[in-house]
Amino acid sequence: MRRHEKKPKKNAKANNMQEIITKAWNNETFKAKLLSDTHAALKEQE
User: Fold this and answer.
1) Is the pTM of this model over 0.70?
2) H or E segment at 12?
């Protein structure tokens, strides 16, 4: 990347996805629910 080019900013959706992945990585119960019932697991995150 050149010095005058700006780095792209992460949006809120990307940050939220990163939080979900981190939680699933660290919490086996959440990971299992995320894999078995994704919609319900994500709804609980709101």
Assistant:
1) no
2) helix 12-26
